[in-house]
Design brief:
heterodimer, A: 111 residues, mainly beta, six-stranded mixed sheet, five-stranded antiparallel sheet, globular, B: 116 residues, seven-stranded mixed sheet, four-stranded antiparallel sheet, 11 strands
């Protein structure tokens, strides 16, 4: 089983659509969870951290289910500028500082 | 806004040559990292560095790789004898806290290494 596994993409949606990304992780010792965004050939940038209680930032909502080792990201009212690859990221669970990235799910928002 | 800067942005080298990639992390950050991304693949952890020593390294980070913080600002990745499979985008990152603790990783724009 992959350490971090994401929905295969790409997702092609019209502007204004709601889109959901799913992610599972294999290491039950992982303590911190994130969604990063990566534009084509650019560096990853933090979109949001994911907390056990779930958290929202504007149009973005992240959820964590520790029992199922599952993380999700919901984007409401999608914009053209949301087009990017969304990376599910999990820490290894030790003190070494290693983050494990998923393969990424590509989102393309069309007018 | 403070940022992580990397040089060079692109380097082309012959197989077997030594390469040094340079990074200037954000000034008040204490933790430094190198990640790499082979074209079309996922971002992979190479090494983390804190207090002038390696905190953790991956299986990719073999004896051909080394990191150094030669002064108070630079953080370098050296590849001693490059192989074709070292061709990738190399991202430097820094953080105020240990990755996974509150606080994010800030990535540089990357150094693209092409080994011929």
């Amino acid at each position: 089983r992959k350490e971090v596994e994401q929905d295969p993409g790409p997702f092609n949606v019209p502007e204004g659509a709601t889109v959901a990304f799913n992610c599972t992780y294999s290491n039950s010792a992982s303590q911190s969870f994130f969604w990063y965004r990566q534009d084509c050939r650019k560096e990853p940038k933090l979109l949001m951290s994911v907390y056990s209680s779930g958290n929202e930032d504007g149009r973005f909502t992240a959820q964590l289910n520790r029992a199922s080792q599952y993380i999700s990201l919901l984007i409401r009212d999608s914009k053209l500028s949301d087009s990017a690859t969304y990376l599910c990221v999990v820490n290894k669970g030790n003190q070494g500082g290693k983050l494990i990235f998923g393969q990424g799910t590509e989102l393309s928002v069309k007018p | 806004e403070p940022e992580v800067t990397q040089t060079p942005s692109h380097q082309v080298t012959q197989m077997g040559q030594e390469v040094i990639l340079r990074c200037v992390p954000i000034s008040n950050h204490l933790y430094f990292y190198w990640y790499r991304q082979i074209l079309g693949q996922k971002v992979e952890f190479l090494v983390s560095f804190y207090n002038n020593e390696i905190s953790e390294k991956s299986e990719i980070f073999d004896d051909q790789f080394s990191v150094e913080r030669p002064d108070g600002s630079n953080f370098t990745l050296k590849i001693r004898s490059t192989k074709l499979e070292d061709s990738a985008m190399y991202f430097c990152a820094s953080s105020e806290y240990l990755a996974g603790a509150p606080g994010e990783l800030f990535f540089g724009e990357g150094s693209r290494l092409t080994v011929l």
